[in-house]
């Protein structure tokens, strides 16, 4: 706990002490914290914790930018304009608000609650059987969420056991420590039953699984994170405490290209896109696949991220033929996974309707920016749009797996992002009011790099990037240049022509 500060000051104080404002992710933790803070005060007070929103019209999100579920608001909360930060009430004289959450002005001076995971000891080590990847086994037990955050803080991520070879090597090295149970980087937090690796790759696309008999079973309906046991993988409550294994890849990213000749639909030919794995990565130890990134409807019941149409697999990648109607509209991800290193690299491609109402003014469907940058997204109307400017709406597909939308603005052909953070990374849609379902919208993907411009080496970002030309981007993890279609080489200076595909 800390003395009275504004929300931002409290957040800074927590960070300076190696932690963050507390995330109250369960009713049990809420009850514990309420009982913990209540004896400390002779009068009622409300404690800042790690929940806020950036504007009155937006949803509250946790400080780690994840969505809240089962909030514990006091009656009538969250309420009025300007109350965009949350606090936990300790007031034994008022049962209606004691132990409940209140929305307050972020500038109010209040006491606050920090959390700091126990810092595991251990050291990065190479293990036999896996090349160019180092691993770290924690010595202390903690929740899946704390484990995930800690791995990120030290420049890695929870280990991804994507292949039989990697799973066997990691299990042989760490599976005999203690009870053999440890967290690794697999969960279905984004959608029940749809498991994803720590880098966002769908489990079903990488092929290998090692579930215990009968698993995953989602016992009692709330097991969303995956641990390793001696008999295999088991889904479990994310707040349970176990050791965990981090990984840090030293392998360069795979060179994946996502290409289409029909970004704005097609009046004659079938819309299609290609996923191409460029040399020298297009070998038999790499698997290339595709998935839909967003659902094109506000209705999420029964949705699927399966890609419609027909896939044609060819050496070095695949061609995806899409339906000739509006069901082809969307953002698609081309991904490749190395079965040797377990690393995955992805690139997106966007398909709009040929009858669209809006399109990006500069024709660019994806934009990459850096933390702190300012950017203005701009669209123009087509001849198919007949309504006035006051009918224009902007929304973000803020939860890509669920396809849910949250309002961002209206009545203009531009939307400005100021001093960008990772929270601004999203897919921005422009459409006519109350006409999302007709799929005539524009989509612009905004990517916010993990490091400031010209820097790499997550999380410290303390190394300088080499120059990347012709639109190439410095990879924040490896420092290598990620080249755009048509270019290759260390600095993206060498032109190339694909010999594998035609569109």
Model description:
Residues 457-493 form the EGF-like domain. Disulfide bonds join 483-492. It holds the Pfam family Lectin_C. Residues 1-115, 130-247 form the C-type lectin domain. Keywords: Disulfide bond, EGF-like domain. By secondary structure, this protein is mostly beta strands. The chain folds into four domains: 2-115, Mannose-Binding Protein A, Chain A (Roll), CATH 3.10.100; 125-249, Mannose-Binding Protein A, Chain A (Roll); 256-351, Immunoglobulins (Immunoglobulin-like, Sandwich); 358-448, Immunoglobulins (Immunoglobulin-like, Sandwich), CATH 2.60.40. The strands form eleven sheets. Strands 9, 10, 11, 12, 13, 14, 15 and 16 form an eight-stranded mixed sheet that branches. A five-stranded mixed sheet has the order 25-31-30-27-28, with no helix packed on it. A four-stranded antiparallel sheet has the order 4-3-5-6. Strand 3 (45-52) and strand 4 (61-62) form a beta hairpin. The longest helix has 11 residues, at 27-37. The chain is globular, with a radius of gyration of 24 Å.
């Amino acid at each position: 706990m800390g003395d009275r500060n504004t929300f931002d000051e409290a957040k800074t104080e927590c960070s300076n002490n190696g932690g963050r404002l507390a995330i109250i992710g369960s009713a049990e933790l809420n009850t514990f914290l309420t009982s913990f803070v209540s004896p400390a005060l002779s009068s009622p007070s409300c404690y800042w914790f790690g929940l806020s929103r950036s504007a009155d019209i937006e949803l509250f999100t946790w400080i780690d930018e994840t969505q809240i579920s089962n909030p514990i608001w006091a009656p009538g909360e969250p309420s009025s304009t300007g109350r965009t930060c949350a606090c936990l009430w300790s007031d034994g004289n008022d049962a209606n608000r004691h132990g409940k959450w209140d929305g307050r002005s972020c500038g109010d001076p209040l006491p606050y609650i920090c959390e700091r995971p126990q810092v595991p000891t251990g050291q990065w080590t190479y293990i036999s059987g896996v090349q160019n990847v180092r691993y770290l086994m924690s010595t202390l037990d903690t929740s899946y969420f704390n484990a995930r955050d800690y791995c990120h803080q030290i420049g890695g991520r929870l280990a991804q056991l994507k292949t039989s070879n990697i799973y066997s090597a990691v299990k042989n090295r760490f599976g005999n420590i203690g009870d053999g149970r440890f967290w690794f980087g697999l969960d279905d937090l984004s959608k029940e039953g749809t498991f994803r690796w720590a880098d966002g790759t769908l489990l079903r696309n990488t092929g290998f699984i090692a579930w215990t008999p009968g698993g995953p079973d989602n016992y009692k309906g709330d097991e969303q994170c995956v641990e390793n046991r001696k008999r295999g993988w088991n889904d479990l409550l994310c707040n349970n405490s176990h050791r965990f294994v981090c990984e840090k890849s030293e392998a360069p990213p795979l060179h994946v290209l996502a290409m289409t000749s029909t970004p704005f639909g097609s009046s004659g030919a079938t819309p299609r896109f290609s996923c191409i794995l460029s040399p020298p990565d297009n070998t038999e130890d790499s698997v290339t696949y595709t998935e839909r990134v967003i659902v094109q409807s506000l209705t999420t019941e029964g949705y699927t991220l399966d890609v419609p149409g027909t896939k044609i697999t060819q050496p070095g990648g695949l061609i995806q033929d899409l339906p000739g109607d509006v069901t082809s509209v969307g953002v698609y991800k081309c991904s490749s996974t190395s079965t040797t290193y377990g690393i995955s690299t992805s690139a997106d491609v966007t398909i709009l309707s040929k009858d669209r109402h809006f399109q990006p003014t500069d024709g660019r469907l994806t934009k990459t920016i850096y933390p702190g940058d300012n950017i203005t997204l701009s669209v123009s109307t087509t001849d198919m749009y007949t309504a006035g400017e006051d009918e224009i709406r902007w929304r973000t597909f803020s939860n890509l797996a669920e396809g849910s939308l949250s309002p961002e603005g209206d009545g203009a052909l531009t939307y400005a992002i100021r001093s960008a953070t990772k929270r601004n990374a999203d897919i921005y849609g422009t459409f006519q009011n109350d006409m999302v379902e007709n799929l005539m919208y524009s989509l612009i993907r905004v990517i916010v790099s993990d490091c400031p411009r010209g820097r790499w080496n997550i999380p410290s970002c303390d190394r300088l990037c080499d120059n990347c030309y012709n639109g190439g981007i410095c990879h924040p993890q490896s420092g290598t240049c990620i080249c755009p279609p048509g270019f290759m080489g260390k600095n993206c200076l060498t032109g190339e022509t694909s010999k594998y595909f035609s569109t």
